[in-house]
Amino acid sequence: MALYEHIYLARQDVTQQQVEALTEQLKLKIASLGGAVTKVEPWGLKSLAFRVKKNRKAHFTLLNIVAPSEAVVELERTLSLNEDVLRFLTIRVDEHEAGPSAMLRKRDDADRDERGPRGPRGDRPDRGDRPDRGDRPDRPPRRPRDDVTAGAI
Q: Does the pLDDT of residue 47 top 70, yes or no?
């Protein structure tokens, strides 16, 4: 059987319990078709980069699936009929990632913040050291404004 990573986005106005119930339905559907869900990762409610079906946020859920291709086709058909699902994506992989996914590791790294404060950047001068526009060789010096002639026209 093939290995798949499946991600689906549920509408922002459904509750977390409804998302979990939908995940359980999907697990039962895959199991009935001869497959198995090896890992479920709810990523939570996240902002979208652009509106999808008038939603600015969505509940993200990742499923690692071991199943025949017919089970995945049926899973995608079921999700396309569900009004609570905005989008879904299934990718065939060579092996599943051990441990938490990159999205969950990213969240853990943000909590720790081991890097400390950022120091000064050496590749750009401070504001006081910035050359005047006329001193820069790539730009011509500014001409003084003549308000008297501009008003006469």
A: yes
Please give the Cα distance from 48 to 68 (Å, whole number).
31
Taking the C-alpha atoms of residue 80 and residue 60, their distance in angstroms, rounded to an integer, is 16
The whole-number pLDDT of residue 122 equals: 64
With a cut of 90, say whether residue 87 has pLDDT above it.
yes
In which residue are the tokens 């060789």 written? 137
Do the beta carbons of residue 33 and residue 21 sit within 8 Å? no
What's the CA gap between 19 and 44, in Å, rounded? 10
Residue 75 has pLDDT above 80, yes or no: yes
pTM above 0.70, yes or no: no
Q: Which domains does the chain have, with CATH numbers?
A: 2-95 (3.30.70.60)
Please tell me the predicted confidence (pLDDT) of residue 101: 81
pLDDT at position 99: 82
